[in-house]
Amino acid sequence: MSELASILQSQLLWLAVTLVVFDMAERISRRSKRHPLCHPVLLSVPVLIGILLATDTPYPVYLSGTGFLGFLLGPAVVGLAVPIWHQRALIRRLALPITLSLLGGSITAIVSAVGILSLFGAPQEILASIAPRASTTPVAMAMADQLGGIPALAAVIVLIAGVSGGVTVTPLFNAMGITDYRARGFAVGVSSHGFGAARAFQVDPTAGAFASLGMALNALATASLLSILALLL
User: Which end of the chain is more exposed for a tag (fewer CB within 10 A), N or C?
Assistant: First the structure.
């Protein structure tokens, strides 16, 4: 093995590359005053893919070096409970509209995705992979596997749903004249999970708290609805 090939196999190299690329993307996002098209994830993912292709680095090698970042995702998600706790009194008062919005959003996300692909004759495993698209990645992969879908495809679909939601949510809500940050945050959390929540925190703390709530509740609702559907089919 040549010296260059040995370096490219280094786990610390890919961890460092990922952190540097994301830091650069974050700087660009701040300089753009958090423009939706300059979302750090949207900028850093294509760059990292390009680096992997240019160096002919297999994805398992990259994954082995960045697994620690995946581990940190769990505590980060748990940390989202803090802003939810700070808004607990307001959330308690809005329990009914939150519940109705959650059911409407979760059912719409499942039915619209599966319905559109069904019209184009998509096979069963594709439908099972896209059904949990609005939930978080771990839930979507588990549900896709349970329904006979492809977990890796489900993860990609969840990523696309999150990034597209994070990019379009602010101009869309502004165009629709929706100014209530509670409604804006909850809607993007239900439809675009963690990416939407991250974007909501950039706009307003209250929107971020309700986006975190929407993300968590929708993961539970999607898993419950699809489990019931799997039992009925």
Answer: C
Helix 205-232 crosses helix 181-203 at what angle (to 10 degrees)?
A: 110
pLDDT of 223-233, one tens digit each?
A: 888 888 777 76
45 and 81 in a common domain: no
Judge if 120 and 225 occupy the same domain.
Answer: yes
Residues 210, 200: contact at Cβ < 8 Å? yes
Please indicate, yes or no, if residue 64 is contained in any of the structural domains: no
Q: Which two tokens stand for residue 186?
A: 């909850």
Domain total of the chain: 2
Q: Does residue 212 contact residue 189 with C-beta atoms inside 8 Å?
A: yes
Q: What is the pTM of this model?
A: 0.75
Cα–Cα distance between 154 and 157 in angstroms, integer? 5
- DSSP-H helix ranges across the chain: 3-8, 11-31, 40-54, 59-79, 81-86, 88-93, 95-119, 124-130, 137-147, 151-176, 181-203, 205-232
